[in-house]
Write a structure and sequence with these properties.
about 450 residues, alpha/beta, Rossmann fold, 3-stranded antiparallel sheet, nucleotide-binding, P-loop_NTPase, GTP-binding
Length: about 450
């Protein structure tokens, strides 16, 4: 892996970044020069030394190291992990994914690589379970959410009062390798929908995976068909830059080869007198690094050796800036007021703060009114319930009084019956005693008469 394609590559990268080193107040000179308006040019009478700035930038960048993040999107079994191993000539950790995933999950792995004296922190993100579900309608959502989460993390770091961006591990996705199944017919609806959702968030490089599965003639027609479908559906894929004269020719040529038809293999076979990465089949051998067999060399050249820095730059200046602008506009920040006059950050913050406080007061007043209304409704409900309870109490009290009166009347009648019964009983007892007395006197009289008759 080589970061600079030619000796002037380092100078070109450094020259790109040279603009940031202009002292405050002198940026207008560079702008005027870029527009063709000349600044005053003065000759130097001797060597000063600022021509070493590109070397200083290169040394500083090399000492600090680089980071590069790749997102691999594609169905399970298209050889994403194998291609990554082949691209970076190593063996990354990871187990083969199954086809039984309930949903799409993104798995991120970070590795520290070193080539010569250049350190690279490489992050590979794979989409586990992509395309394995019956309902694939929302398969792109976890990918979009993951990319936005990386943008959000970087934005939050930028908005901190005390920033440490020089030591911050940038996890924003710099390149998305979209693996297309070698069907030879056309793109799937899932591929078109996913790429359409991702094209404004990441640099998409479409590649035809396992391209040895279709013939050369079918592969050429398949590439044309894919390009036509991408254009007709408005999908913006990454175009290798042609504004730099040193790489304009090769990038312009490679743009015509998109999408790349690739083959991956970590197996080395002896072909002739050399050991080469290849795939052995019963009918022959496919060499990975043979441009007559596949576009693997073109992909590696464009992705790593020529345009890696441009992919990083495009991610920051295009995709991240778009996310940042939309996010700040959602928060209410604007560059100009309604009169098209520039807004300062303080004025924007104060306006947003006042707007927020106003909305907060409105919500507080609305909540207070709602609370008062609910209290009144509750009081009315309680009064109604109290009234119903009083009415029920009165009904029960009246019913109780009626029952009590009935019982008293019944008791009085029973008492009268008892008294009458007692009176009758007393009269009967009196009559009985009188009858007994009368009966006794008659018996005595008869006894006397018997006695008298006996004596006679």
């Amino acid at each position: 892996m080589v970061f600079f394609h030619a000796p002037n590559r380092a100078e070109r990268v450094a020259t790109r970044r040279f603009v940031v080193l202009v002292p405050p107040g002198h940026g207008h000179c560079l702008v005027r020069r870029a527009k063709g308006e000349g600044c005053r040019t003065v000759p130097l009478s001797g060597h000063v030394g600022f021509d070493s700035l590109p070397d200083q930038l290169v040394n500083k960048s090399v000492n600090h190291g680089f980071c590069f993040n790749i997102l691999c999107v594609g169905e399970t079994g298209l050889g994403k992990s194998t291609l990554m191993d082949t691209l970076f000539n190593t063996k990354f950790e990871g187990d083969p994914a199954s086809h039984s995933q309930p949903g799409v999950q993104l798995k991120s792995s970070t590795y520290d690589l070193q080539e010569s004296n250049v350190n690279l922190k490489l992050t590979i993100v794979s989409t586990v379970g992509f395309g394995d579900q019956i309902n694939k309608e929302d398969s792109y959502k976890p990918i979009v959410e993951f990319i936005d989460a990386q943008f959000e993390a970087y934005l939050q770091e930028e908005l901190k009062i005390k920033r440490v961006l020089h030591n911050y591990h940038d996890t924003r996705i710099h390149a998305c390798l979209y693996f297309i199944a070698p069907t030879g017919h056309s793109l799937k609806s899932l591929d078109l929908v996913t790429m359409k959702k991702l094209d404004s968030k990441v640099n998409i490089i479409p590649i035809i995976a396992k391209s040895d599965a279709i013939s050369k003639s079918e592969l050429t027609k398949f590439k044309i068909k894919i390009t036509s479908e991408l254009v007709s559906n408005g999908v913006q894929i990454y175009q290798f830059p042609t504004d730099d004269e040193s790489v304009a020719e090769i990038n312009g040529t490679m743009n015509a080869h998109l999408p790349f038809a690739v083959i991956g293999s970590t197996e080395e076979l002896k072909i002739g007198n050399k050991m080469m990465k290849a795939r052995q089949y019963p009918w022959g051998t496919v060499q990975v690094e043979n441009e007559a067999h596949c576009d693997f060399v073109k992909l590696r050249e464009m992705l790593i050796r020529v345009n890696m820095e441009d992919l990083r730059e495009q991610t920051h200046t295009r995709h991240y800036e778009l996310y940042r602008r939309c996010k700040l506009e959602e928060m209410g920040f604007k560059d100009t007021d309604p009169d098209s006059k520039p807004f300062s950050l303080q004025e924007t913050y104060e306006a947003k703060r006042n707007e927020f406080l106003g909305e907060l007061q409105k919500k507080e007043e609305a909540m207070r009114q709602m609370f008062v209304q609910r209290v009144k409704e509750k009081e009315a409900e309680l009064k109604e319930a109290e009234k119903e309870l009083h009415e029920k109490f009165d009904r029960l009290k009246k019913l109780h009084q009626d029952e009590k009166k009935k019982l008293e009347d019944k008791k009085k009648s029973l008492d009268d019956e008892v008294n009458a019964f007692k009176q009758r009983k007393t009269a009967a007892e009196l009559l009985q005693s009188q009858a007994q007395q009368a009966g006794g006197s008659q018996t005595l009289k008869r006894d006397k008469e018997r006695k008298n008759s006996g004596f006679l």
